[in-house]
Q: What sequence folds into this?
């Protein structure tokens, strides 16, 4: 009887260790964080992470073996996406635990925020209240495919790489909220600094659309 129980327990923990293997690489965590934003091709993930196609494919295979992602062939491309909403919760839980428990992550956030002068960080609650005013302009800094997948209501899409060239098109008489992929993305702070340096009144929301949606549903 004891042997049966031991084998049962060991088999379960062995299965769970596949999840641990998936999360044991910073690049695989980055891939998961990207896929939270929406489905992406191998080529797109490779470009975003700076890895070769071969290395990207190897990491994706590990994530697929752990059932954290699924894929589908569309024409000449293979498209990957998060397996289900529980995986999204897992990614954000991991980020949250890291921020609370690891002093290195707290220090990295603090040092980066200190280096970005002229930023006005706001909370989800503050941003949600500001968004009720139709005069508030919300800018989503993510690539177009992520914006098209999901975005905050009434937000406009100006990818970070195109923001500077679009400054003349933005109104200076409106308050602006900028957001990107969430707490591990630097673009919201950098965009806020760029806008405020150029005479705008911009706020940095270091939260993702997923965070916004959860807050809205609360």
A:
């Amino acid at each position: 009887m004891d042997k049966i129980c031991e084998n049962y327990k060991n088999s379960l923990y062995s299965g769970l260790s596949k999840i641990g293997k998936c999360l044991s690489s910073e690049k695989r965590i980055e891939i998961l964080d990207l896929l939270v934003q929406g489905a992406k091709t191998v080529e797109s993930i490779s470009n975003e992470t700076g890895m070769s196609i071969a290395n990207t494919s190897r990491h994706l295979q590990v994530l697929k073996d752990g059932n954290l992602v699924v894929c589908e062939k569309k024409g000449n491309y293979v498209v990957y996406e998060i397996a289900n909403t529980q995986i999204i919760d897992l990614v954000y839980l991991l980020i949250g635990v890291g921020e609370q428990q690891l002093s290195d992550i707290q220090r990295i956030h603090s040092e980066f925020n200190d280096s970005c002068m002229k930023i006005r960080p706001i909370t989800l609650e503050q941003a949600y209240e500001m968004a009720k005013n139709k005069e508030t302009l919300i800018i989503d800094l993510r690539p177009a495919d992520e914006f098209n997948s999901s975005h905050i209501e009434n937000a406009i899409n100006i990818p970070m790489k195109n923001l500077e060239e679009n400054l003349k098109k933005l109104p200076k008489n409106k308050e602006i909220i900028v957001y990107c992929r969430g707490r591990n993305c630097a673009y919201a702070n950098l965009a806020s600094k760029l806008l405020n340096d150029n005479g705008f009144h911009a706020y940095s929301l270091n939260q993702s659309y997923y965070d916004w949606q959860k807050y809205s549903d609360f």
Observations:
- Residues 1-88 form a domain with the Arc Repressor Mutant, subunit A fold (CATH 1.10.10.10).
- The chain has two domains: 1-88, 115-217.
- The chain has a mean pLDDT of 93.
- The longest strand covers residues 69-74.
